[in-house]
Amino acid sequence: MEHDEYACARAFAALAAAHARVTEDLGAALATCGLTINDYEVLVRLDGAPPPGLRVRDLAPAVRLTQPSLSRLLVRLAQQELVTRTGDPDDRRGVLVSLTPTGKAALDRAVPLQARIVRELLLDKLTGEEQDLLARALARIAEK
Questions:
Q1: d(CA 92, CA 98)
Q2: In 3D, which of 103, 121, 101 has the Cα closest to residue 111?
């Protein structure tokens, strides 16, 4: 079945508007914790990582930043003592990044804010069935 080009345009416009609204409100909420959305994304990924942490090259695709941008972000987070950066004992060229207790505390403050924003702006507007459908559809779209 061929998709109506205008329906595609409307779907994209709706997705972009929803993303912009959630991103704007989430950015403002996270700023109260001293974090940016990218900071939050890194801390969330590191929180679930087994010791001794994640390699920078493995973190990059998850946070959707270029290698130079991610490197600058990690330097800043390390200066704020939210993460540690250490050499990878298995690969001298590699760097391992892990969450510090200070980073975990910042994440613990930020997670409820993120959940509130997503709930208020997205999930509360949908039925349980629609929430499940949205989660499945977005997961499929995000797959490579």
A1: 17
A2: 103
User: Alpha-carbon torsion 63, 102, 110, 20, what sign?
Assistant: negative
Q: Residue 52: which residues within 8 A CB-CB, separation 6 or more?
A: 86, 96, 98
Collect all residues with Cβ–Cβ distance below 8 Å to 68 and sequence separation of at least 6. Answer: none
| Structural domain boundaries, residue 89 | 5-142
Write the CATH number for 83.
1.10.10.10
pTM flag (> 0.85): yes
Q: What is the pLDDT of residue 1?
A: 45
Dist CA 25 CA 5 (whole Å): 30
pLDDT tens readout for residues 73-125:
999 999 999 999 998 777 777 889 999 999 999 999 999 999 999 999 999 99
The runs of H, that is alpha helices, within the chain are: 5-31, 37-47, 56-63, 67-79, 101-121, 128-142
> If we measure between CA atoms, which residue out of 52, 40, 27, 38 comes closest to residue 108?
40
